[in-house]
Amino acid sequence: MTLAELQNLIDRSLFATLAYRDGEDRIQIRRVFCTWHRGLGRHLISTNTSSGHVACLLRDGRASLYFADDVRFEGLNLTGTVTVHTERPWKELLWHDGDEKYYPKGVDDPDYCVLEFAADGGAYYRFDGKGTLTREETEAWDRDRSFADTYALTHAAGEP
Amino acid sequence: MTLAELQNLIDRSLFATLAYRDGEDRIQIRRVFCTWHRGLGRHLISTNTSSGHVACLLRDGRASLYFADDVRFEGLNLTGTVTVHTERPWKELLWHDGDEKYYPKGVDDPDYCVLEFAADGGAYYRFDGKGTLTREETEAWDRDRSFADTYALTHAAGEP
Lengths: 160, 160
Fold this sequence. Notes:
The structure is a homodimer.
Chain A: H1 3-12, E1 15-21, E2 27-33, E3 36-38, E4 42-48, H2 52-59, E5 62-69, E6 74-85, H3 88-94, E7 112-126, E8 129-134, H4 135-142, E9 148-149, H5 151-154
Antiparallel strand pairs in A: 1-2, 1-5, 3-4, 3-9, 4-7, 5-6, 6-7, 7-8
């Protein structure tokens, strides 16, 4: 797959799969809503600070993030680390009207935080073969990009 | 979620997400076709023996398997271990007419093997809350069950 095809897979996904280590070094997996991306290498996820996965990621930030399309048989696994952001600029960036239903105290709700996944490499799979994505390729591809929410690009208003 | 609801989530899934450790102790994630189950705790996956994930799992069998329904917002993460089976009875069990396109040498193709995932615990997530699944609950639920392919139960012939 080309880097543009990998970017397209990421950009049209609503969800990704996050895998991380719990306190007993077991792998835990969760589906996460993930539509904020900076190119191939950086991805933002809003979540509850009190969640079990946040506690695990604060202890051990090593994680993997997987984007897949089961219909086209495409998958991209990124390995990397997660940083937990509690600073207001990150929280403002991802805030949507109506998020009070998840975070009743608004943008400043201490139970609202933003996870930033930063890739250090990747592997992709498609019906026609597989390959790897290096940190250097990712950094070069992402250099002039900034964070953007692909939800509005790929999903019409009002549609899930 | 009740155990019956968790079983229903597993039984209506075609794919699951497998996470395992590579040679550098990074988490790798792959989507796998997974329709053979023995209750909640044991799951079979046919795959290429030469695949990278088989090499990783032979070195370190610790893995997690995740079943999710993005529409109903249900997810079940099982932690456990994978055994790689190359014995003919396992390979016969999962063989389908037409699998020669994946394994040209047929059932005895050395590049065809069966992964058995055995859970030692789990955690589930749904819109209405989360909870854990213990090894004891799983073993009691699975005791009188045997391996069965849910593909035919949940997907009409000819439909993907």
